[in-house]
Amino acid sequence: MLYFKLRFFLFYILLLVLNINYVVTEFITASILGGVVLGGGLFGWNTVKDYTYCRYTECCNDKHVPYNLSRLKVSLSQKMFGQPLVNELVNILVAHKESIKDVNRQNKKALVISLHGWSGVGKNYAASMIADAIYAKGMQSRFVKMFMGKKDFDCSDMEKSKKELMATINMIVSSCPTSLIIFDEIHDMCPTILDTIKPMLDHHHAVDGIDYRNSIFIFISNIGGPQIATNLLELYDKGIKRNEVEFHHFEPIIRRTSYYTGGFEKSSTIAQHLIDHYIPFLPLEQHHVEMCALAEFRALGVLQPTEEMMLDALSIITYGPSEDQPIFANNGCKRFVKHIPYVIQKYKPKDEL
């Protein structure tokens, strides 16, 4: 027994001395450490791996995939404005996480979420918050993959695009069953691309030997933005307040519009009800935009911007849906990312330039 303890200890010291990093493959490490584990029976493989290989590279364990949904709740409450239904993402993900952890309530399928709304209302921001909460490296995690509309899919060679898509997702999810796959700009995507991943989203124990049931797929698009805005105005006319809206007020119109648009066009993901949650991002009103601007100033170190600075920042925002109804910000908060740093520089005292 002492011999095997000493053997593991010496190997662990060797790892520290050599500072083994990403070049070391999991296969080689598994082979060496496997001899220690099998020979001595001292440690479980996962324990050995966590304290050796996983100290030098990202692994699919609780350290690198903490699934900290309390962090998501805080992020949404502090950084997402005017989106009452988006806050429900926390409950949606908590339910999914509990089924991962509880063997008696295993997930029956992958979690599929579709985010819809005008540009600049926070869809990509919400997706990045989800990644930051689930993975220690956030969007930089090797277990997170984002595909972009036209950029990642060649519509002139669909078969090649589909094969590459399948291979990429297979590789990611096989390395971590709790991976996050994001499809952005679906409004610009080739029709039928999403049908390629239909088996991964459906109620299957495994596809080609890979279990997708604990993974998450997020679709992001501008599809349905105008319809969401029109519907919200109609709800206002009926006396329904913004924080009283429900998913059922928007899902039918989002589904109907999506089925005839972009990458969703006649897609089996919609026709066969594989999307679990359609999340409407509501168009922002003036006070929401002001909150966005203030948050951006504070994130850049200006805790109390002057009234003049705020007016300058807000001057780039136009409102619609028409001149007669200047209710919603046409581009949300999107332009603040570049404009507010300029405003800060513009109003900086000359002796600080």
From TrEMBL:
Any one GO MF annotation of this record: ATP hydrolysis activity
Gene3D superfamilies: P-loop containing nucleotide triphosphate hydrolases
Signal peptide as annotated in the record: none
InterPro entries assigned to the protein according to its UniProt record, in alphabetical order: ClpA/B, P-loop_NTPase, TOR1A_C, Torsin
Record-linked Pfam families: TOR1A_C (PF21376), Torsin (PF06309)
Torsin-1A C-terminal domain segment(s): 284-337
Gene Ontology biological-process entries: cellular response to misfolded protein
Gene Ontology cellular component terms for the protein in this record: cytoplasm; endomembrane system
Domain of life where this protein originates: Eukaryota
Coiled-coil intervals: none
Family: Belongs to the ClpA/ClpB family. Torsin subfamily.
UniProt name for this protein: Torsin-1B
Native species: Papilio machaon (Old World swallowtail butterfly)
